[in-house]
Amino acid sequence: MFNLNNSITEFLLMEFSDNRELQILYSLLFFLIYSAGLMGNLLIVIITTIDRRLNTPMYFFIRNLSIVDICFISVTVPPASINSLVNNRVISVTGCAIQIFLLVWMAYVEYTLLTVMARDRYVAICHPLLYPVIMNPRACMQMTLTCLFTGVLYAGLHTGLTFQLSFCQSNVIHEFFCNIPSLLKISCSEIFFNLISLFVSALALVGCFVFIVVSYIRIFSTVLRFPVKEDQRKAFSTCIPHIIVVSLFLISTSYMHLQPPSDSESVKDIIISVFYSIVPPFLNPILYSLRNEQIKEGIRLVMKKKNFF
Predict the structure, then answer these.
(1) How far apart are CA 103 and CA 245, in angstroms?
(2) What is the residue extent of each domain of the chain?
(3) What is the dihedral of CA 268, 270, 276, 280, to 10 degrees?
(4) Homologous superfamily in CATH for domain 10-307
(5) Are 18 and 82 in contact (CB under 8 A)?
(6) Strands 10-12 and 90-92: what pairing?
(7) Measuring CA to CA, which of 59, 231, 251, 303 is 20 to 30 A from 162?
(8) Residues near 168 by Cβ (< 8 Å), separated by ≥ 6?
(9) What does pTM read for this prediction?
(10) Predicted confidence (pLDDT) at residue 256 exceeds the cutoff of 90
(11) pLDDT at residue 269, as a whole number
């Protein structure tokens, strides 16, 4: 529930640049990157849906991850680019709350999906005979829905706690989108309970990370015992993109939330924000399509059917 005693009714977001020409240039550049990321993820969704050979749990989760990436990148970049083009820094308190809720929700779902994908690879490689039983379609759907619904609770909790605070000192957010750390910096309320909730949530996410690490230690120990080198290569080719995606997402989110407080706008703030909100969703489809022969073959088949070649 929002704090009705809050005297602030709107926030001011950070501009891409003080120079109007550079502001428009950055806005267009970020929108081009967004468009490329959007098209790449849409392509993954289309390929894994159309090609029946990709109707497996691994590609089911890759498709879901691409859908989440589309939502994740769409929450921040298009509004920021449009605001920059029309030279408008204002965002309402309600709009900021909605943006934070969606951003936290998508980030949570992405991270938990990456954890589920680690389990999928573990079962497929370490227990192949049990794979059809453990990772059956019903179980895959249940795990995905669990990620979505617990994400709603997670995002709702943190959004509600954030907007119970008062923001009477300043309404300037030193990011080009709303996020929780930036709002905590400008709050004039006691934020101890907010920090505790973030810390507890961080511990849960660390638990997911430990699960991923342990899963891949077991996976690699199993793969290295494969007698055929080609089987090792195929196994690694399905695991390496996932490891890179997890690393990118973890590094970007951790650095975003653990960086020291900033009291002024800087190029560094923009770079960190861009890396956190744009780079992982932009690179995910590239990593999966370049490292996965089945997806590349699926892309070629779809292109041929549509007479692109």
Answers:
(1) 18
(2) 10-307
(3) -110
(4) Rhodopsin 7-helix transmembrane proteins (1.20.1070.10)
(5) no
(6) antiparallel
(7) 251
(8) 6, 7, 8, 188
(9) 0.87
(10) no
(11) 59
